[in-house]
Amino acid sequence: MSPRMRLWLVAAGGAGLAALLVAACLDLPRFGGDRHPCGDRAVEASLSRHTANTVASVTFDQRAFDTLGEMSILFAAVLGSVVLLRQTRDEHRARPEPAAVSRPVRRYALLVLPVALLTGLYVVAHGQVSPGGGFQGGVVAATALHLLYLGADYRALERVRPLAPYEAGDALAASAYLVTGLAALLAGSAFLANTLLPYGTFNTLASAGTVPLLNAAIGMEVACAVVVLLAGFLDQAVEIVDEGESGERHDDPGRPGKRERP
Amino acid sequence: MTTLTHVLPYLVAAWVFLAGCYGLATSRDLIHAVGCLSVCQAATYVLLLAVGYRDGATAPVFSDLAPGSRPVVDPVVQALALTDVVVGATVTALLLALVVQVAKRHGTVDPDELSELRG
Predict the structure, then answer these.
(1) Cα–Cα distance measured from residue A244 to residue A230, given in angstroms and rounded to the nearest whole number
(2) Domain B2-113 belongs to what topology?
(3) ipTM value of the model?
(4) pTM for the full predicted model
(5) Structural domain tally of chain A?
(6) Which is nearest to A175 in space by CA: A139, A214, A201, A203?
(7) Considering the domain boundaries, does residue A4 fall inside one?
(8) Which residues in chain B are closer than 8 Å to A59, comparing Cβ atoms?
(9) Facing B87 at nearest CB: one of A26, A30, A70
């Protein structure tokens, strides 16, 4: 299909879709309206289970089963990325050269690293009380580790980040979520129902029943998943090169599946 | 005028979605296409948060707010937006991994040059 033809097709389809979307928008409840039956009931349920952060209550209590699916998507995506970004037969690993880092960058990165790591853990731990939770805090904690790459070099990052434990941690955290759900089942309630633990004192760390446990499991899973994902991409960028590329580069056009450099 | 302000956030969501679709259709670079898909996804965040908004309301977090003292926005759609962000991030990661492999195997990331099938 020629680019011009394709543009016409997109214009026609886009115009139709735009018309339908505008018609749908005009029929939606008005923006800022006061009628939110689902939200009101969610707030009520959250308060009855002593969860100050209503969003955490929705995610890890009322919709805990959906979060299990969400976690599985994350797990499957990490698995897929690890398979896609593996070292293939016609590639080998080059030892990354230590790069010069300017001193302010190094100093700032190493100063912020522990603060960022602690912030991530804080956000995970306070998920049931204040905005945040496992997903957000896990990303912050995993990102904090990568400040080492900015501040020092790739080998320093690899020393604090042996991949195997993080891969195992990802799987362990995912099973911890499942086990918490099954524990509720064994205790004579429904799968992932928040009936296992006492609801505790409102607005303290030990409140909201199983929400902190699920939060911790998700926090660990997300942190490990982000570390493993970024490691896959960073390995591709820094370490993995084609055969023969590190020494003199020789092109071998006869071989399929070979990177072609212009 | 009031009708416009009542539907404007929804229209913004629709516009962002269509802008992403246009980018996807005319993309000459797979990494750009993955970015456009993220733009499409960003439209759903706008839509979800617009659906949950309530005039004069605050965040649905009661750590420093007495329950019932102020209206709060809908927490259900906020949790949905959270799910949306997570799924969007994983999809982006998986697609970028695919782009890395395409670039290696075919030496190009232009979708128009990827018409041939190769091992």
Answers:
(1) 26
(2) Helix Hairpins (1.10.287)
(3) 0.82
(4) 0.81
(5) 1
(6) A214
(7) no
(8) 79, 82-83
(9) A70
